[in-house]
Amino acid sequence: MELKPMRSIAKTRKEFERNFHLLAEHIRNGRMRFMRGVSTDGIGRVRYLPNRRVDFLSVNESARLAANSIADMDNLPEFKIKRDSDDEK
Predict the structure, then answer these.
(1) What is the arithmetic mean of pLDDT over 2-26?
(2) pLDDT class for 86, splitting at 50, 70, 90?
(3) Where does residue 50 rank: exposed (0-12), middle (13-18), buried (19+ CB within 10 A)?
(4) pTM for this model (two decimals)
(5) Which domain of life is it from (predicted)?
């Protein structure tokens, strides 16, 4: 498998904030879970300004990575699990 760079690395403030809003939505909807022992302090410390913009000073590396990862996974094509019974049809 060839490794490719993440397509979701934000180049503008708008893209950066989009990634964080996606992350917040995934957490609210229960679509993102964390293993026991994994620190989520960085995500918990992200603050929003009164106008709902992300406060850049509150974002650390782990929060940025989580937001970019969610955005990158959001761009992946859907796949279907092939079952043995599908071959018989």
Answers:
(1) 86
(2) low
(3) exposed
(4) 0.72
(5) Bacteria
For residue 78, pLDDT beyond 70: yes
Question: Sign of the C-alpha dihedral, residues 32, 34, 35, 36?
Answer: negative
Give CA angle at 62 (56, 65), nearest 5°: 85
Give a yes or no: residue 87 inside a domain. Answer: no
Parent domain of 27: 13-74
6 in a structural domain: no
Rounded Cα distance between 89 and 43, Å, is 46
Task: Count up the domains in the chain and report the number.
Answer: 1
Task: Specify if 8 maps to a domain.
Answer: no
Asked if pLDDT for residue 53 goes beyond 80, the answer is: yes
